[in-house]
Amino acid sequence: MDNSGLKTLYSHNKKRYYLFLCTGILIFHTIGLFFICATSLAQDQIPKAPVVVSRIIQMDVRQPVKMVGTVFPLRESIVASEIEGLVIEFPVKRGDYVKNGQVLATLRTTSLEIQLKGAKADEHLALIEYERARELYEGDAISNSEVDEFETKLIAQGAKVEGIEDDIGKCTITAPFDGRITEENTEVGQWLKKGDSVISMLQSNYVKVRVPVPEKYIQSLNVGDESKVSFSALGGMTRTGNIVHIVPQAGARARTFPVYVKIDNKDEVIKSGMFAEATFETGSLLSAKMILKDGIVRRGGMEFIYLAVDGKVAEVPVQTGIAHNDLIQIIGDVEPGVDVIVRGNERLRSGQDIQVTGRMDPDEIGEKPRN
Asked: According to the CATH classification, is domain 81-201 in 2.70.50.60?
C-alpha cells in the first residue's frame, strides 16, 4: 500500500476514535446525571427524623462534696424465743435468705396442747354455770351480783384459753422481715429459755451508708435529698440513694453529724462493713449551663449533644459536670436558650433533616432556671 492509502486509513481510524470518545463522554455524563437526579429524588423521599427537644438553661447549682462513709444493713435483728421450750425443728442455716413470716424454728407444744384441752373444758363448764345463773336470776332466785360472779369466772377462763393459744403460737418462731441469716444460735434438741437467741439476721435488699458530715455542711442537707455513692471495693460502682436519717447530735470529738443514705441492693453485691464515698450537693453555688440528662450521647469515649438548628442536626462535643436531679451540666461551645434533642437522638447524624414533635423544657418539669 502506498503512502496515500496509509494516510486515508489513518484518517478514518482517527475519526472513529474521536467518535467513540465523544460517545463515551456523552454516555458517562448521561449516567452521572441520572444518578444525581435519582439520589436527589431519593433524598427528597427520606422522611425527617421525629425528635423531642429541650432548652439549654443557665442555673445556679451547688458543687458536689464527697465524704467517706461505711455500709450498714438497713435492718438487723437477733430473733429470740418468746417462750421456753424444746426445739424440734430448725429448718434454716447461716447464709439462707428468708422471707417475712417464714418459719425459723419450732418448739414442742405437747404440754401446752394438754393444758389447752383442760382450759377449754373449764371454759365450757363456766359457760354452763353462767347460763344457769341467768335463768335463776330471771326467776328471782339469785341476785344480780351473783350473776356477775359467774360472768367474771367465764371471762377469766376464756382469757386463760387465749393465753395458752398465744403460747402455742409463740412456739413457731418466724422471720420478722425479708433478710439473710448471719448466725445460727440454736439447734434441734436444745432447750430454749424465754429470751434466748434463735438466729441473727439482716435485711440485705437495701443498705444504708452512714456518713459523718461536718457541721459546716449539715444545714444544707435534708431528708429525701439524693446522693450518689461509689464503692471502691466494687470497682468504683456507683449507685444513687436518698437521705433517710439525719442525726441531730454531733460527735463530741470530730463534731460531725451522722447522716444515713438508703441504697437499693437487690442484687446483694454491697456488703455490710464496706467503705463508701457519698457525694452531696452542699458546696458553693456555681452558675452552670444545664440540660436534661437524656440529651447526652456517648460514643467512642466522647460525649456529644445534638442541637436542633433550622430543621437540621448540629453535633457538638461537650464535657459533663455537676448532676442535679434530671439535669446535668455541660461544658462546651453552646449557649443557653438553644434547643437540644433529648428524644430520638440515638441514631442521628450531623446535618440530618429533623422534625420537632415535642418539647421537654426543664422549667416545665419542675426545674427553675436562673433569671
From this structure: no
